[in-house]
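Duplicate of earlier report; Chloride channel protein input re-posted below.
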Amino acid sequence: MKIHNKKRLISFLRFKRDFQQYGLEKARSYELILHWLNNRLSRSQFLLLSGILVGCTAGLAGVLLKTIVHNIHFFITHKVHFEYQILFYVIFPFLGIVLTTTIVLTIFKGQDRKGIGAILYEIAQNSSIVSYVKTYSQIVQSAITVGLGGSAGLESPIAVTGAAIGSNYAQTYRLNYKERTLLLAAGATAGVASAFNAPIAGVMFAFEILLTGVVFTDFIPLVVAAVCGSLLSRILLQEDILFRFHTREAFDYRNLPYYLVLGIVTGIYARYFLIISQKVEHFMKELQMPRIRKAMLGGAILSLLCVLFPPLFGEGYDTVKTFTNGNTNSIIENSLFRYFEIKQWTIIIFLVLICLLKAFATSFTIFSGGNGGNFAPSLFAGGTVGFLFAIVCQQFGFKDVPVSNLVLVGMAGAMSGVLYAPLTAIFLIAESSFGYDLFIPLMIVSVISYLIAKWFSPISPELKSLAEEGKIFTSQHDKNLLFALHTGDLIDKYSQTINENAGIEELSNLVKNGNKNIFAVIDIDKKLRGILTLDDIRPYCFCTGNNAMPTLTKLMRAPAAFIHPEDKARDILQIFDNTDTWSLPVVDEENIFLGFISKSSILTSYRDLLRDYSD
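Output:
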């Protein structure tokens, strides 16, 4: 009993010491409890608890944002007469982008990095440390942009918000880089799961886009976070806010030709969407005008598009639900096309124009200063393309066309091609439509669209600029480019060596006449004995007498790690990250020194290879 009490006393004293060391005296009571649990629980247990807490918090953030935007849209589209709606379409989208830009410049000091690329940037370049400001800045900006009619989605801002929540939680409890990255991904997962009420799709999003190389034990916090986010969404959100589709046909294998063709159509459309996005982004960047004026220009263009085509207003999910219900006339009756006689050709022209202009509306919303993502626009555009494809098939005399199914799988196809995320698209639509029997057509359309997108560009154009700068490595990039690099081509053939029995004069000449700051110490058989750097030598450069430079065998040190010729570039980069070094020696099976390899040489070769692939 005394021994047990003594252990408890030691544990308490250590806990008190930690509080004093890290300045936790001012911590909130729940933070003290969690710090205590962090000391008491195992890593897996604390990560499981962390996944629950991060998932619930990110889920609540997603619910809050969806509720705010839904209520604004409902007021404009259901409570306001058509004539006044036009006035709102003129004013609100313009005002949304201008207000968002103003808030970014004045309150958030111009920091407006957004979208999935922002999360990947923080993982790769900032050790998964996300600013606390992003736990609320994305909600404020996207609520204003999309709530007032910006033609973008809320899912990317919700994902960034969840990532910030997970990262800051990990920072508070001083978790390491790997655990911090895991909870960052858990927050983003919970955000996506709450936005769509689709936990499996949230997990697929994390694995497919944010994380690579996680072990199975890390799978649990992601699942728990996704479930928490999805449950909160299901409990707190009303049915009309949820991303749910109840109308669909049963899968019939005889309809496979429809899905094969639709896969090609959505793949081509996804490429069109991305090209327009790139063109608009380049156009806005090249404009020599202040950001407020750019916002006014983008807002004016968006307002004009919303007046002409009201389905471009906001996320557009209600329009897609109308497509699945077959009530297209109600959409046209709320637009300027109401003044034309509504016939089949009127509907087709209307849908074609919506598909073509959606890419412009989304791009001007995002790149002129608004905040939003491509989740909702790709789903809206894909659903419209699927519905248009179904109507065209009916016009050509085909019978029993599965209209609602084509709308659903069209959404998955466009999302797969735009975001380069086929698994996320498949599970998202399957969960949202209760259409698990649609897995075959969902896989067909999503994979075809994804392959077409990959044929045009190996990695997502949204991430291309970051990848070219060496700031991020996407999972697609790791597989297609890093594995194409050969270790033998990365070794410095002019690495400098010195024999372990060499004298001080020889070492001085090597330093004086060479151009390296790291040297390999080898024996007579060219086997590596150790390494030297200029930092190791510098303290003895001007010393004499008893403080003179010691022998090389005493001065050299063992390298942090060894590289072997058969190692892959991606594994070598991981070794560099684990050892926090920039140069490492390459040796063969007999420890023969082959040269040094540096992290910069891998990054330089990667950028050159990426440029060749892109061209």
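The chain has three domains: 27-236, 253-463, 482-614.

Merging into the original ticket.
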